[in-house]
Amino acid sequence: MFLYNVTIGIDKDIETEWLQWVKQNYLPAMMATGFFRDCKLYRVVTHDDESSVSYSIQVFAENIENVVNYLNQHTATIIEGHRLKFKDKHVAFNTLLEEVV
């Protein structure tokens, strides 16, 4: 099992708008690709910045190929769409983790 994690720091002044958009658009679009079997959204509680808040978007894939295919096929639409909509109001970084059994 692979966990593709996107941690996003979003300006507090658009947090409500961003959160609603992520729940209604971003997560459903990621899941609709068929590359992930589940998704979760967490607020980072150890974040120490007065002007922003961080969230962790976690999607779970059966294999690394699904993550690679998602990135190759959907960067221009899903990921770039988020970047353009919230331009200059967020920072993001990605992490790919493999479950150890």
Backbone CA Rg = 14 Å
Distance between the termini: 9 Å
The overall strand count is 4
What is the CATH-assigned architecture? 2-Layer Sandwich
CATH topology: Alpha-Beta Plaits
Mean pLDDT: 92
Largest sheet: 4 strands, antiparallel
Spatial ordering of strands, largest sheet = 2-3-1-4
Which stretches are low in confidence, meaning pLDDT under 50 for 5 or more residues running? none
Structural class estimated from helices and strands: alpha+beta
- What percentage of amino acids are in beta strands? 25-35%
Shape from CA axes? Answer: globular
User: What is the CATH class designation?
Assistant: Alpha Beta
Task: Provide the succession of SSEs.
Answer: EHEEHE
Instruction: Tell me roughly what share of residues is in helical segments.
Output: 25-40%
Supply the number of structural domains: 1
Name the quaternary structure.
single chain
Structure commentary:
The chain is an alpha+beta fold and about 100 residues long. It has two helices and four strands, in the order βαββαβ. The protein has a single domain, classed as Alpha-Beta Plaits. A four-stranded antiparallel sheet has the order 2-3-1-4, covered by helices on one side. The N and C termini lie close together (about 10 Å). The model has no long low-confidence stretch (mean pLDDT about 90).
